Structure formats: C-alpha cells, structure tokens
Amino acid sequence: MIKIRRRARKSFSVGAPPGTLVAHPDAAPSSIQVIGYDQERLVEEVISDPESLKKYLDQYRITWINVNGLKDVGKIEKIGEVLGIHKLALEDVLNGQHRAKTEDFDEHLFIVLRMVESPQNFYLEQVSMFIGANYILTFQEHEGDCLEPVRERLRKPSGRIRQNDVSYLGYAVIDAIIDGYLPVLEHIGDVLEHNENEILLGPKPSHLTTLQQLKRVLINIRRAVWPVREMINSLIRDDNPFISEYTSVYLRDCYDHAVHVIDMVESYREICSDLMNAYMSSVSNRMNEVMKVLTIIATIFIPLSFIAGLFGMNFSHDASPFNMPELYWKYGYFGALIVMAVIAIAMLLYFRSRGWLGSDDKFNDRTNKGD
User: Fold this and answer.
1) How many angstroms separate the CA atoms of 119 and 117, rounded?
2) pLDDT-based confidence at 361, cuts 50/70/90?
3) What is the pLDDT of residues 246-280, one digit of tens each?
4) Rounded to whole angstroms, what are the CA distances from 245 to 89, 201, 229, 252?
5) Which one is the CATH code of 3-280: 3.30.1360.120, 3.30.565.10, 3.30.460.20, 3.40.1080.10?
6) Tens digit of pLDDT for each residue in 52-84?
7) Cα-Cα-Cα-Cα dihedral sign, residues 259, 261, 267, 270
8) Comparing C-alpha atoms, which of 212, 368, 193 is closest to residue 280?
9) What is the number of other CB atoms lying within 10 angstroms of the CB of residue 78?
10) Which residues are bridge partners to 66 per DSSP?
C-alpha cells in the first residue's frame, strides 16, 4: 500500500520585502554535492564552503551542483552570490509550493518541477533547477531522489551526457523526474487491480479507504504533472540561449513522456471512480438483499399474526353462540396451525413465482415488462 507523507505548511514572512529568504523550521540541513566533468575527467565531491564552487566552474567544462536540504539560508544565499542567482528565484526555491514553471533570467534559466520520492512512500517535493552557461544547480528538499540513473550515465566516459552541452544534462534531469512517476503509477495500477478483484468477491470498508487514498494520490500527481507539458513546450518553442537546438529534439520526447504520464493518471482516476461506484453498488445490493429477506419474513407473519390475534380474542361463547365457535372444535388448535402453514407456504410459492426470493431472470423479465 502507498504511504502518503504529508507536507508541512510553509511559514511565510508576512510583509517582508521581495527576495527575503525564509527557511521552513522543519527543513533538512543543507549539503552541497558537486559533480564536475568534461569528456576526459569527472570528479564527485561534497563541499561545505560555497566559495569553493568557483574552482569547479573554472576547471571543468560543466559542473552539476546539487543542494540537499533547504535549512541553511546563509549557505543558499552564498551559493546565489557565487553563481549570480536572482534573489526572487532563491525565494521561490525556499517556498516549495510552486507549480512546474520556467523563468528566464539574464544569466540563467530557472525551472521548477515536482519529483516523487518512491512508489511505496509517496511524497512530492519541489526540485528547483538553474541552467547557466556551464553549470546546473539543483535544489532538493531532502536527500533521496530519482536522479541516480543520471549520475550513473555521467560516470561513463562514453556516455552521451559527457559528450554534450549543459542543456542536455538539464534535459536528462527533467526526463528522469518525469519518468520517476511511472513506477508509482504502475504500483497504483497493481493496487487497483487487486482491489477490483477483492470488491467483486466481497466489499469491505478497507477497500473504500484504499480507493479514496489512491484517488487523492492521483489528484496530487495530476496537479504536479499537468503544468509540466506547458513548461516543456515553452522550452521547445521559445528561443532560449540556454537550450541548444540539439537538446530541443530530446525535449520533444520528454514532452511525450509527460503526456503519457497524464494519460495514465486520467485512466487510473476513472478506474478508481468506477471501483468506488462498484463498491457502493455492491454494498447497496447487499443491503437490499438483507431488507428483502426481512420484508419477506415480516410479510409472511402478517397473516399469521392476524390469525393468532383473532383466536386470541377473549369473547365468551356462553354469552353468544357466535363468539369464537372454533374454540370448542376438537381439532381447532391443529386446524389453526395447518391454516397458518398453508398460508405461509402459499405466500413463499407466490414470492418464488414472482422472483422475489432471488434476482433471477424471471424477476428481471417481469420488471422489464412492468409487471
């Protein structure tokens, strides 16, 4: 089952001027991972001083700077000073409530995406990415991501990423984030299929809880992925100096992946809604069956209660020969029981002939004929 980890609300600094950097109290500590590479060399290091980034920018053709955790505002602000990141963009980095978007600045391209953590532990975190002339800067809310395949490709000297420009690395990161939704959706599909079989066998309240949870997850995924199409389309359509023509071709494939994810989300949302309707119909049918049995039992006992009540009237036969003459019959007691049994059996046979004892074809035929 999918576990949903809830996001803490953002603490805004009300009335603060634009560009004010405020970290969430529950944010994870910031760590800086650096990958500098060219076609022949590659280095991976964890640094603590943002000033040392200048060394990698000068020595390597492309540098990928990844910041995990957004708690250390001073360190993040220093990174922005070294790379020339606009304060408004850094403010958006710390405010993790943005939809997927892209913004052009003079010295860099700013892109915002939402990344899913894992199929079992569902959590959407904001990934902020800056593409500069010879670097990519990514910010994540905490450690753990779906970008390890990109790092593995970078470690291979003959990999396509090592041979291309910085925009191709940006495409690889975007593509990995979008593809990270596919395992989650496949897991959701397996859960839906399992619940469909269980609901057909016998609905339980836990099935409805699971379906409601999956529907909420699908809504969150849809809200996260839907703006990605327009974001990628703007990268392809607009003449952006930070996106090469070679990379634009691959971004079209990335656009197709986003459309595929959206189609899967819409399909699973419809299946989830259909299963919820099937659950409610099954529960309603079961309740109708119970009420039908109780109604039949009550209906059978109505004439029996009438007969028993009739013979239970205490009108004295001595006062009038017309008062309860059956009380003096030799076999009156057995006769009354036989009459009750005959009435009950006759009613059961009548109910059966009408198809009211079960949802058989005769009942459906009579219902369709309006009988």
Assistant:
1) 7
2) very low
3) 999 999 999 999 999 999 999 999 999 999 998 88
4) 25, 55, 19, 11
5) 3.30.460.20
6) 999 999 999 999 999 999 999 999 999 999 999
7) negative
8) 212
9) 15
10) 33, 138
C-alpha–C-alpha distance, residues 233 and 11, integer Å: 32
- pLDDT tens, residue by residue, 125-180: 899 999 999 999 999 988 888 899 999 999 988 888 999 999 999 999 999 999 99
Task: Say if residue 26's pLDDT is above 50.
Answer: yes
| Strands, E assignment, the chain | 3-4, 31-37, 42-47, 62-68, 101-104, 109-116, 121-122, 124-131, 135-140
Residue 24 has pLDDT above 60, yes or no: yes
335-348: pLDDT as tens digits: 888 888 898 898 88
Beta bridge partners of 127: 113
Cross-strand bridge partners of residue 47 = 32
Write down the pLDDT at residue 5. Answer: 56
Dihedral sign for Cα atoms in the order 76, 81, 82, 86: positive
Q: Return the ∠ at Cα 286 (arms to 282 and 289), rounded to 5°.
A: 140
> Across the strands, what pairs with 130?
110, 137
CB 127 within 8 A of CB 177: yes
- State the Cα–Cα distance between residues 342 and 315, nearest whole angstrom: 26
- The total number of residues written for the chain in this structure: 371
Domain boundaries, the chain: 3-280, 313-369
Question: Nearest CA to 282 among 369, 208, 365?
Answer: 208
pLDDT value for 365: 46
* Packing angle of the helix pair 332-354, 245-311 (nearest 10 deg): 160
- How far is 239 from 222, CA to CA, in rounded Å? 28
